[in-house]
Design brief:
Chain A is an all-alpha fold. In chain A, 79% of the residues lie in helices and 0% in strands. The chains are: A mainly alpha, B mainly alpha.
Chain lengths: 124, 132
């Protein structure tokens, strides 16, 4: 029963959060290097990006749902099931962004769904 | 950076899994029970180690996104599905059945097929194309 709540939340909020963070990091720009001062400069630029906050908020919700799922199911079951976020992202890009998804990409997503179904069947 | 990403993420999930199994079944209502559950969860060392690993993952993932495309970083991180099953088996002693391994392999195959498509397949707006 808990799976019907936590898995959709992990998938939808996780994907939405990643897209928001991706958008924020594109605005922040590339890190010049990996020295602490350079990393802090990137962090400083990232922290004032509204998209970063929206992304972090959605990812936090996905995180608490992940904790709920991990309390009930094994890790090797929970994490592969979250691969459904590829499918959610494809449908989201078609419905909300009106993007065209190529037949090959749909084929890959069919493989993901088949794989997740196999992982689901392995639960019992 | 990609290597750190595909190791830290699964390690974080495995540690969280160990912590949540330690906590046991969750009770979320009424409010005092929810607070007690939250306190129990966040006083478990494995949870904090898992969070530290996931923060490492998040930083390496964000840095990877600052120099690489999302459409490259996301498929590269799919290797984590295999790594998490491996760590679940090695660290937590989880039974990973052949069907589950096969399912994970099919998921990785699917992600590989998705990643081999052109990054942009949406046709440009015809109006946009004739515009100077």
């Amino acid at each position: 029963m808990i799976g019907y709540i936590v898995f959709p939340t992990i998938v939808l909020c996780g994907t939405g959060g990643e897209l928001c963070v991706s958008r924020a990091m594109k605005s922040v720009g590339e890190a010049e290097g990996f020295r602490p001062a350079q990393l802090l400069r990137v962090a400083g630029r990232a922290i004032v990006e509204p998209w970063m906050w929206a992304g972090v908020g959605m990812m936090a919700l996905a995180f608490f749902s992940l904790l709920g799922a991990l309390s009930a199911y094994s890790v090797s079951f929970v994490v592969p099931v979250t691969a459904l976020d590829y499918v959610a992202a494809a449908f989201g890009s078609v419905v909300f962004l009106h993007e065209h998804v190529s037949p090959q990409r749909w084929l890959g997503l069919v493989f993901v769904v088949i794989g997740v179904t196999m992982v689901f069947l392995s639960k019992s | 950076m990609i290597l750190v990403m595909i190791l830290a993420g699964p390690l974080g999930n495995v540690l969280l899994g160990r912590g949540m199994k330690h906590v046991g079944p969750l009770s979320l209502w009424p409010l005092p029970v929810l607070l007690h559950t939250a306190l129990t969860v966040f006083s478990t060392p494995s949870i904090w180690l898992g969070i530290a690993a996931l923060i490492t993952f998040f930083i390496s993932w964000s840095l990877a996104l600052s120099w690489a495309d999302y459409s490259f970083v996301r498929p590269a991180s799919s290797l984590a599905y295999g790594v998490v099953a491996l760590l679940g088996w090695l660290i937590l002693g989880e039974h990973v059945s052949p069907l589950r391994w096969a399912g994970i392999a099919v998921i990785c195959l699917g992600v590989l097929v998705v990643s081999r498509t052109a990054p942009k397949t949406t046709p440009r707006n015809p109006v946009e194309r004739v515009a100077p």
